Amino acid sequence: VNFGPIIFLVTFFAMAGSWFGLVLTPQMQLGHLQQTNSVAGSGALYPVSRPGLARQGLDVYRSLGCAYCHSQQVRQSGTVCDVYLNDPGTNRAAVLAAISQVNPNASESQAREMLTNSTVPILTGVTRQVADTAVKALSVGGAKPALTIVPIGPDITQGWGKRQSVAEDTLYDYPVMLGSQRIGPDLANEGLRRPDLNWHLRHLYAPRLETKGSGMPPYRFLFTKQKIGRAPSPEALALKEFGPPAGYEIVPTPAAAALAAYLQSLRTDVPLAVAPFSMPEAPAPADTNAPPTNAGPAGVAALKTAAK
Ligand code: HEC
Predict the structure, then answer these.
(1) 303 and 163 in contact (C-beta within 8 Å)?
(2) Closest Cα to atom 21, ligand 1: which residue?
(3) Are the beta carbons of 60 and 258 closer than 8 angstroms?
(4) Rounded CA gap, 182 and 66, in Å?
(5) How far is Cα 176 from Cα 59, in angstroms, rounded to an integer?
(6) Do you find a cis peptide bond into 145, omega within 30 degrees of 0?
(7) Could you report the per-residue pLDDT of 101-144, keeping only the tens digit for each?
(8) Which ligand 1 atom sits closest to the C-alpha of 208?
(9) Which of 71, 96, 232, 274 could link 179 by a cystine bridge, Cβ 3.0 to 4.6 Å?
């Protein structure tokens, strides 16, 4: 018999199927991705492309294989809500009654504290539904309750990010350095967690200088040892240990400077409609009578933003 047509058909459908699954579907899902707006107060465009030096640093990051040990994707298992009282309003008795209705576990003194101190949550870690009901119940006597959205999950608990990573975060990166192994910590928000450029340079030169017993390999070849001229270079690393012999100094090469700039540029600190979170409470001035900013689309109601 002639198997030719069968082989052709099987091959054709296998190929067509993988094209649909691996090319067409992702293209339909992500191909039209564009800049979007932050759902926090300012509504600024997000993301903006990395500064030029940081963009060069991405290539250094890739060429050195940092992604073999570091991921750049924060996951979250869900979100919970906290409920605060931004403004106790005028009818304190009614609000106090509402507080003990919403949170029956609160003692009377605790309820009073929740009423007067806008940083003490009335409810924490509840579902959206419960929080919405509570906000409704608390909106009595001119009181202004606010709801904050808090992402949760092991990565968030580690302090690796405020929210999960989403496709928008990498819109301007090519290639995307998501990484899959976590020999070292996730770096998706490294620029937020360690904003000090010199920390990164010293850490790249000698990881053990900054982290005791670090298992990260040193990248000494990103630095040059040079004789100190008339005056030390302003770029020279301040090294407590592993320093060069007297009369010499260690300065970063352009590649090291770019890499450090890239590490500093890693930050996903903007809440999006697809990944909302509430901005952290600023060390609040005594009376925060500012009403909560209503943050627009996708049900992200009343993000409690820091009063500026
Ligand atoms: C062999 C695995 C490995 C490779 C490759 C590697 N790292 Fe690391 N990295 C680690 C480990 C382990 C740590 C945690 C210990 C430490 O802080 O030094 C770490 C920590 C870090 C930290 C500090 C993270 C934090 O917030 O504590 C940064 C930044 C970093 N690495 C950047 C890089 C860069 C950039 C490269 C590529 C030039 C790289 N790493 C390559 C394993 C690696």
Answers:
(1) no
(2) 184
(3) yes
(4) 11
(5) 10
(6) no
(7) 999 999 999 999 999 888 899 999 999 999 999 999 999 988 99
(8) 18
(9) 71
